[in-house]
């Protein structure tokens, strides 16, 4: 922590503000996840590299983490290498995997199956779900179209427009191609977790009026911020309780009687972007150095497709004094907050620490003392 003194000129006097701020919080390091690969039959796709034909099975792949019950949906990001079903897989770095186009692949996984349900994805792509398909068959189609799009960006592979599913029938050809084109034609961008922030603005312009301090403005690119307070309450402009605010929305502080301190807590929850890479290893490496469990060999690389929930916690603590006398109009000491930005470190860590900002506003002297 460091202590920084700021002098803020007011209309008739200078107010002294002491701002005590903690160092920025970073994501906590997490142990790499390891698990066993499972595979179910899928659809055989017809495609090519440039002018060379290359057909491949889009088997439905899953990863069952060690010590967990849920099987996670994963995709192949290494079309030329066979899947190693005998070895465990462990989480590694994207750079270590040496696979290209992470931004585009993230977009495909975020917008494809299972982030979007099978039927919803097929219909969003402009195709039809055959009413005779079972849920498993619809999932195979959505998975195959998503896998084809992943290979397009990681390996430069293109799905054939003419009969893309070998032996496909009952609408499989049309649906797989539609999903593939839907996910590759105009890929968007999914923010990296390190770019998510929660911030508070208003320290330069907030004032005391009608028994409350404000306004303060929420800044969040991670979704709505759930708010709570201890030592007072938070209000919207109309006087309603401020519980959940979006980016750009404002709140005012009303202190409890007999106190001049308040703690405001905020939490932004979001779906953690996908993109965690897994590579084959061995049992000996998993029990050895956990920082580098990878082994070199011909084994297919996989990427996690399912988003997970994440949160960004924020906390602001204020010491605020209302003017001691209202007999004559005087310039008011702004109710001071301090902007807070809590960002994730690069990668997909699921937990962050909080950052506390304490703002102390010294009591103004009475008019006779100024």
Automatic annotation (TrEMBL):
Domain Gram-positive cocci surface proteins LPxTG: 329-365
UniProt keyword list: Cell wall, Membrane, Peptidoglycan-anchor, Secreted, Signal, Transmembrane, Transmembrane helix
Signal peptide: 1-27
Positions of the Thioester domain: 73-186
Matching InterPro entries: LPXTG_anchor, Thioester_dom, TQXA_dom
The UniProt record lists the keyword Glycosyltransferase: no
TM region positions: 340-360
NCBIfam families per the UniProt record, alphabetical: LPXTG_anchor (TIGR01167), TQXA_dom (TIGR03934)
Protein's recorded name: Cys-Gln thioester bond-forming surface protein
Organism: Glycomyces luteolus
